Amino acid sequence: MSENISLPKPYKITDIIKETEIEYTFRVEADLEVEHGQFFQISLPKVGEAPISISGIGDNWLEFTIRKVGKVTNEVFELEVGENLFMRGPYGSSFPINEYKDKDLVVIAGGTGVSPVRSTLKYFYENSDSIKSLYLIAGFKDEDSILFEEDLEKFKSEFNTIYTLDKEKIDGFEVGFVTDHIAKVPFDSFENYNVIIVGPPVMMDAAAKEVLKNGVVEEKIWVSFERKMSCAIGKCGHCKIDETYVCLEGPVFNYTKAKDLLD
Amino acid sequence: MSYAVSIEKMDKVLKELKKKYRVYAPIRFEKRGRYSDTDLIRYAEIDSVKDVVYNEKSDFSPKEVIHPITQTLFHFTEYEYRESQIDDKEILIFAHPCDINGIKRLDTIFLENGNNEDVYYKRLRDKVKFVLMECQEDWDTCFCISMGSNQTDDYSLAIKFGEDQLSVEVKDNEFEGFFASEEEIDFTYKFVTANQEEVNLPKIDDKEMLKKVYDLKMWEDYNARCKDCGACTSACVTCSCFTTSDVIYSENGRVGERRRVWASCQHEDFTEMAGGHSFRNTPADRMRFRTLHKVYDYKERFGEEHMCVGCGRCTDRCNQLISFSKTINKLTEEVNRLQKEVN
Ligand SMILES: Cc1cc2nc3c(=O)[nH]c(=O)nc-3n(C[C@H](O)[C@H](O)[C@H](O)COP(=O)(O)OP(=O)(O)OC[C@H]3O[C@@H](n4cnc5c(N)ncnc54)[C@H](O)[C@@H]3O)c2cc1C
Ligand code: FES
């Protein structure tokens, strides 16, 4: 009998960090091989399942940053430290960290889009010798929706950071969309580099157009997609776009592939 | 070896077989059809070969035997998930070549895609043997020949039905014993060699052409016609999509089960994500998606064959009289026209 890969397993919650009113980070005990940018199916008996990106990777723990928007996510927010979070995974493609090494890296992330790329950022923060430079443009709607404040503060010492809020002006943050700040990245001075773009679909489209305008070639751009998913293992069909299954070949795609994924 | 077998004898064999197998065939449910005074023909377990409807196309395919409309995946309590169980009876399915080929397409999705095997599908699929039923006529919406699915060698028995006698070819030694005392005859199963309906398949060579296909005006016709009912996808032998949902047994308890239920890409909410954001928002978009899956992108992904097997059930079931073969032919005409414009 082959292993049932849709069987959820219990993971003990060891910490819950309140990022905003509606976004909490859950840390669970887990000793698993995972890659940056992959996701799990959070799987709660009685309510159902939801795909959630890994937002942090530790020696024997994983973090998930979850926005409370509906059935499954509401129920996750009822859980407390010490209780079990049922999950299955990891699933999907990841950011090719090795390809980013010893080059310049530009990360453009909007809102909850910071979450799938956070473990990559932390990796290069802790291994800053393995990257030439890292430019981080992170944007949020307003002061109340800022995620990972502590991390953002720390990143300033190793990365070139631009933090921005859509309309509000507060200390440490610029005003405007992430796309308004892309021109500040000195693409011309880079020899070899990559660009990661993660956020809502409209933001990813706009940011990709903007970096292309700045002379970046498609092969160097990486994005992460969100689609409705039910199985996460290539069976249910919900995530399919043409011949591509986002749960299998994605969520992380190179732009050369992503630009052809039309609905 | 082939034999002439009386109906009575075949029913005796069936009785023996039923000790080990669940035997499924298309049977008639009187007055249960879509319109008043019409019957419904669909798959169910049989007690007599007399019940097998061999000279009409079934409204639904045999896929529900292996990929049930609703299926329990897990039973859960607050603390654990337990995989659902099935009994250990084997399965015998009476089917025409298109449906056996259709089930091979399901195999590709459930057993190959993503390099993982779906245990719920596999545990049923591994039990299945086929009884091939000869197509005695070419029904008006069939286009199996265009799809290359009019033939198969995946069967244990092949049967040609007659009024009171059956011609039976025994291919699987397991069944030879049941017929040893019967009269040997010269019978070879005949596959259909001509359809009234012929379908030309589109040649979409690259993504540039695909983008043009997306923008074709022809899809917009379906905005007025298609009512998003999903009858086509539930009748289709190769449609495999599903949604999982949890059901609880009592209001306050956490005891319950996780099920999966057939889903349709023709339904509006098929791609809807939290926040209400969805993709393919018009019937036109969804019709394009389904058409291209059946005659373009499944083959792009898996290489060998198209997903559609030309059984024509989607056409038969459509309330709005949308003919899938006409849709494909129209698409091919348009692609040919676009091709000429390029050259
Ligand atoms: C690869 C991937 C990674 C993801 N990573 C994360 C992550 O790291 N963090 C995160 O928080 N999320 C992430 N998501 C999104 C997350 O999966 C969804 O937010 C989650 O599935 C919501 O599930 P739910 O059951 O809580 O909400 P549901 O109950 O399914 O949906 C609730 C929301 O949808 C709306 N809604 C529901 N039905 C309708 C309707 N019929 N019409 C209009 N609106 C409707 C509700 O108003 C509500 O806002 C990711 C998704 C993918 C595909
Ligand atoms: S989520 Fe089911 S196929 Fe991708």
Automatic annotation (TrEMBL), chain A:
The keyword Iron applies. Binds 1 [2Fe-2S] cluster per subunit. Its cofactor is [2Fe-2S] cluster. One of its GO terms (molecular function) is 2 iron, 2 sulfur cluster binding. InterPro entries: Cyt_c3_hydrogenase_gsu (IPR012165), Dihydroorotate_DH_Fe-S-bd (IPR019480), FAD-bd_FR_type (IPR017927), FNR_nucleotide-bd (IPR039261), OxRdtase_FAD/NAD-bd (IPR001433), PyrK_electron_transfer (IPR050353), Riboflavin_synthase-like_b-brl (IPR017938), Sulphite_reductase_B (IPR014260). It comes from the Bacteria. [2Fe-2S] cluster binds at residues 231, 236, 239, 247. Residues 6-97 form the FAD-binding FR-type domain. Keywords: 2Fe-2S, Iron, Iron-sulfur, Metal-binding. PROSITE patterns: FAD_FR. Pfam families: DHODB_Fe-S_bind, NAD_binding_1. One of its GO terms (biological process) is pyrimidine nucleotide biosynthetic process. NCBIfam families: sulfite_red_B. This is Anaerobic sulfite reductase subunit B.
TrEMBL record, chain B:
InterPro entries: 4Fe4S_Fe-S-bd (IPR017896), Sulphite_reductase_A (IPR014259). It comes from the Bacteria. This is Anaerobic sulfite reductase subunit A. Signal peptide: none annotated. The lineage of its organism: Bacteria, Bacillati, Bacillota, Clostridia, Halanaerobiales. It holds the Pfam family Fer4_22. Residues 216-247, 298-327 form the 4Fe-4S ferredoxin-type domain.
